[in-house]
């Protein structure tokens, strides 16, 4: 269901919440691509809620355009909204979701996709989270400004056009403790099952299995 959060600076934003099923294990904040809170991301939230996690997806474009959900075919619109977002205020919105889950008890982790994958790395640097996972995180040089404070796992397609090999190599060198997995034959957005041209079922399932194991280790 959709709820409203208030960030540290007073900004209010929408946040999709999926309630944990069965025995609760903690909380997960899912950070969006450049398309907003899509139905596909809600499906990812359901996947992890079934594993016992309360899941929050904050609307990180609400400062630029309230309620923005961009069709996958209109990536340039999403890119413009992403470029208009300021990192510091965006992280305040991420933290609002983290805090909303922390009040429920237990540890909180982050999973980010594309733009949100890079933000997941930033969360591991500055927010009170237990672990972060980056799916094909972009803009990696932007986050090579501080050490990681918690464990981070990353998943990139070997043919990711947004993250060339030299960019990923530089990130691995800057963050030597980051656990990195590469998927041969997969490109950008390989885990997005609503984008048939990009989706790689085998790579996506392997990445999610690794994510589940990683979060079970660090969150419970």
What can you tell me about this protein's structure?
The chain is an alpha/beta fold and 220 residues long. It has six helices and eight strands; from the N terminus they run βββαβααβαββαβα. It has helices at 39-49, 75-84, 87-102, 115-126, 165-174, 201-218; strands spanning 2-6, 12-18, 26-31, 53-58, 108-113, 131-135, 152-157, 179-183. An eight-stranded mixed β-sheet has the order 1-2-4-3-5-6-7-8, sandwiched between helices. α1 links the parallel β3 (26-31) and β4. The mean pLDDT is 98.
Write the layout of secondary structure elements.
Blueprint: E1 2-6, E2 12-18, E3 26-31, H1 39-49, E4 53-58, H2 75-84, H3 87-102, E5 108-113, H4 115-126, E6 131-135, E7 152-157, H5 165-174, E8 179-183, H6 201-218
Parallel strand pairs: 3-4, 3-5, 5-6, 6-7, 7-8
Antiparallel strand pairs: 1-2, 2-4
Taking pLDDT < 50 over at least 5 consecutive residues as the criterion, the unreliable ranges are: none
| Number of helical elements | 6
Element-by-element helix/strand order: EEEHEHHEHEEHEH
The proportion of residues forming helix, as a percent range, comes to 25-40%
- Radius of gyration (CA) equals 16 Å
Brief account:
The chain is α/β, with parallel strands linked by helices. Helix content is 35%, strand content 21%.
Throw out a few tags for this protein.
alpha/beta; 220 residues; 21% strand; 35% helix; 8-stranded mixed beta sheet; single chain; 6 helices; globular
